[in-house]
């Protein structure tokens, strides 16, 4: 019985030491290296959401994964480091990088959980916390981090993609195949798609200067592309049916990629594979 009690005590002691060690690692990374933030807005299988990637500022020979969780209460967003997972030694790369790497942790917050307004954005690691100001507007989101040595953000403002757009491009080789691309675009307009103009913001997937509706681009030897950006509530299956039809009518000479900003809907058509459509949730 005495041995059983001793073993139980030893197990609990080691377990607590292990927990403390993991917690100390997180605090040490924050204190000694500091964390930087890459964040953005995207459209994925899980809908429209904000991506937050917390990255160690200093490279080390060991790689760690940060497990983070968030809670929203009123106008307070609390992000807490819950676990630090040791991933082993960093992979060795040739050149000046050698065998060091940075550690990071990714977290997502659905767009609908952050309606327009002003929020306190608190990052908590162990007994250390830093509170920033998060401002959500209709067309942009700003994170203002106060001056400190522990947490930094070099991307103060991000711009969520406007809802209700479908965008992409039609690519073809040879000027003689331009007619197939234009026939496709003409047929798409029967779905009551309206040409859209993007605001002058830096979106993750779209450049307002280089991705304008019906903007034509050519390159050597005889390659061509036409960009499309429509505002539409059209059924995405109808868009796929029309693009697939004109792909076949062209003799499979078109390469077509079309995407939606409301859901993760995607169309991929090329001469090298069967036409594919994906419907997001």
Structure, described:
With 281 residues, the chain is α+β, with helices and mostly antiparallel strands. Helix content is 20%, strand content 43%. It has 3 helices and 17 strands. β7 and β8 form a beta hairpin. The longest helix has 32 residues, at 2-33.
Key phrases:
disordered N terminus, seven-stranded antiparallel sheet, 281 residues, alpha+beta, 17 strands
Beta-strand percentage range: 35-45%
- What's the total number of strands? 17
Proportion of residues in helical segments: 10-25%
How many structural domains are formed by the residues? 2
Question: How do the strands and helices of this protein lay out in sequence?
Answer:
Blueprint: H1 2-33, E1 35-44, E2 47-56, E3 62-73, E4 76-89, E5 104-110, E6 117-125, E7 128-136, E8 141-144, E9 151-153, E10 157-158, E11 165-173, H2 178-188, E12 194-195, E13 216-219, E14 223-231, H3 236-249, E15 254-260, E16 266-270, E17 273-278
Parallel strand pairs: 1-9, 4-6
Antiparallel strand pairs: 1-2, 2-5, 3-4, 6-7, 7-8, 8-10, 11-14, 11-15, 12-14, 13-14, 15-16, 16-17
Helix pairs in contact: 2-3
Provide a compact summary of the structure:
By secondary structure, this protein is α+β, with helices and mostly antiparallel strands. It has helices at residues 2-33, 178-188, 236-249; strands at residues 35-44, 47-56, 62-73, 76-89, 104-110, 117-125, 128-136, 141-144, 151-153, 157-158, 165-173, 194-195, 216-219, 223-231, 254-260, 266-270, 273-278. The termini are far apart.
């Amino acid at each position: 019985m005495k041995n059983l009690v001793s073993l139980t005590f030893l197990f609990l002691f080691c377990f607590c030491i292990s927990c403390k060690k993991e917690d100390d690692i997180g605090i040490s990374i924050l204190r000694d290296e500091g964390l930087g933030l890459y964040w953005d807005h995207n459209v994925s299988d899980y809908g429209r959401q904000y991506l937050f990637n917390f990255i160690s500022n200093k490279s080390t020979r060991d790689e760690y994964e940060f497990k983070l969780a968030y809670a929203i209460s009123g106008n307070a967003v609390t992000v807490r480091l819950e676990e630090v997972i040791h991933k082993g030694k960093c992979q060795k790369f040739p050149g000046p990088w050698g065998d060091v790497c940075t550690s990071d942790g990714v977290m997502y917050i659905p767009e609908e959980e952050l309606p327009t307004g002003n929020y306190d954005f608190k990052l908590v690691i162990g007994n250390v916390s830093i509170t920033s100001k998060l401002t959500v507007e209709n067309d942009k989101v700003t994170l203002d981090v106060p001056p400190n040595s522990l947490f930094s953000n070099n991307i103060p403002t991000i711009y969520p993609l406007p809802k209700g757009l479908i965008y992409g491009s039609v690519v073809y080789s040879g000027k003689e195949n331009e007619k197939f691309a234009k026939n496709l675009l003409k047929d798409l307009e029967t779905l009551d798609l309206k040409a859209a103009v993007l605001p002058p913001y830096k979106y993750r997937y779209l450049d307002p200067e280089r991705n304008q509706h019906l903007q034509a681009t050519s390159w050597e030897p005889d390659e061509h592309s036409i960009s499309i950006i429509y505002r539409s509530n059209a059924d995405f299956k109808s868009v796929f049916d029309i693009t697939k039809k004109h792909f076949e009518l062209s003799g499979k000479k078109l390469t077509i990629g079309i995407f939606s900003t409301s859901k993760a809907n995607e169309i991929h058509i090329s001469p090298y594979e069967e036409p594919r459509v994906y419907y997001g949730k």
